[in-house]
Design goal:
Blueprint: H1 4-7, H2 10-13, H3 19-40, E1 46-50, H4 54-65, H5 70-84, E2 104-110, E3 116-122, H6 128-138, E4 143-145, H7 146-155, H8 167-178, E5 189-191, E6 198-200, H9 213-222, E7 235-240, E8 246-252, E9 273-276, E10 280-286, H10 288-291, H11 296-305, H12 310-324, E11 330-336, E12 341-346, E13 350-355, E14 363-367
Parallel strand pairs: 3-4
Antiparallel strand pairs: 1-7, 1-13, 2-3, 2-8, 5-6, 7-8, 9-10, 10-11, 11-12, 13-14
Helix pairs in contact: 4-5, 5-6, 11-12
Length: 369
């Protein structure tokens, strides 16, 4: 803090003050300084989410505006999206894999403690974000996967086992089978019949399995041709609570017609989401198989730590991916400790939602590539 004498008006500084007067003046000045700092907290709480998932943001806002923690709010917000089956890509009843089964990926991260809980390829449990929080609360692990993640969640009180398929997901899967299981996520394979099983093929007929760089890039570029918002999406949410503490959460049922066992970026800290109480947070959505190779949200938060504004940090993270995979589809949002937020995208138009104290309701921001 500045020297008290330097804070006094010139006329008062030149006056001889007794100790009682100095004490009272010091108290008043400290109150003014502290009051100014407290007024900055009017920017909190804040909720930010991928896409116009308005009800999810409203659910999180109700929790955090009533004084609950950032972690509580992201769990409630993502749970609302799971229950609403946002875009058919969050929660049960959507995105069947090649066997027609729906599985869940989810994550929660506390930006104060840096604790993370996550579940991946979880079967039979519809409450992905709640299961992720249980991992964070009651284990020293970060990530549980598959059927054993479901067994853990049930043992900790979540309802299950539950069939996560729906009439809509099964109808989608049936039509896909009728279309010779196209599109799919296989490459460089030969199917025994139109829908597999698949066997590796000898690339270009070479006995050594070599291939040209051109052929490799053609395979990479065609890789993202069937990725879009309504078949490949995630809710990623960040919340600042009234104390300025931050948390992030994600939930998704993954890529439609994925190879069974596939895990996307949803439960990967630093890819789908990341939070650090000292800096801010990031959320991501899109082609997780590509994006998780770059940990874009970790990149965004670290860029902001070094002083980069959110709009530049998000653009930088997206451009790093686009340089290597020019046809990838994805987006990120960022919010720093000051409450400044921004987004960047590639391959599609992206929208993210915000609720803050000066707003009467959720506001949706649109970002173009």
């Amino acid at each position: 803090m500045k020297n008290l004498h330097s804070l006094l008006p010139h006329s008062m500084a030149a006056t001889n003050l007794n100790s009682a007067s100095i004490f009272l003046l010091t108290f008043a000045l400290l109150f003014m300084v502290m009051g100014h700092e407290a007024s900055n907290s009017g920017q909190y709480p804040v909720v930010v989410s991928t896409w116009p998932f308005l009800e999810a943001v409203r659910a999180a806002w109700r929790v955090v505006d009533n004084g609950f923690s950032a972690v509580d709010a992201v769990v409630e917000g993502c749970s609302a999206c799971e229950e609403l089956r946002c875009d058919g890509t969050v929660g049960p009843g959507g995105s069947p894999d090649e066997n027609g089964e729906t599985t869940i990926d989810a994550l929660v991260m506390d930006g104060v403690t840096m604790e993370v809980g996550a579940v991946a390829a979880m079967r039979y449990i519809k409450d992905g974000i709640k299961a992720a929080r249980l991992v964070m609360q009651y284990t020293e692990h970060t990530l549980l996967a598959g059927e054993q993640a479901a067994a853990f969640a049930i043992s900790m009180g979540l309802p299950g086992p539950t069939n996560l398929s729906s009439s809509e997901s099964m109808d989608k899967w049936t039509k896909w089978k009728e279309n010779h299981c196209q599109p799919n996520f296989w490459k460089d394979v030969v199917p025994v019949d139109r829908c597999g099983p698949y066997h590796a093929k000898d690339f270009l007929g070479s006995s050594h399995g070599t291939c040209s760089k051109t052929t490799l890039m053609e395979n990479i570029k065609s890789r993202s041709s069937h990725v879009g918002r309504h078949n490949h999406d995630t809710i990623s949410m960040a919340v600042f609570d009234k104390m300025g503490n931050i948390a992030v959460g994600t939930s998704t049922n993954g890529a439609t017609f994925k190879i069974p066992g596939r895990v996307g970026d949803g439960p990967i800290a630093g890819s789908s989401a990341y939070a650090d109480d000292e800096v801010g947070a990031c959320g991501a959505t899109g082609d997780g198989d590509i994006m998780m190779r770059f940990l874009p949200c970790y990149q965004v938060v670290e860029s902001m730590r070094l002083g980069m504004e959110p709009n530049l940090a998000t653009k930088d993270a997206i451009s790093r991916i686009a340089r290597k995979f020019p046809d990838f589809v994805g987006a990120v949002f960022a919010i720093n400790k000051k409450g400044v937020h921004a987004g960047a995208c590639h391959g599609w138009t992206f929208q993210y939602s915000v609720r803050s104290p000066e707003m009467d309701d959720v506001k949706v921001y649109t970002v173009v590539p």
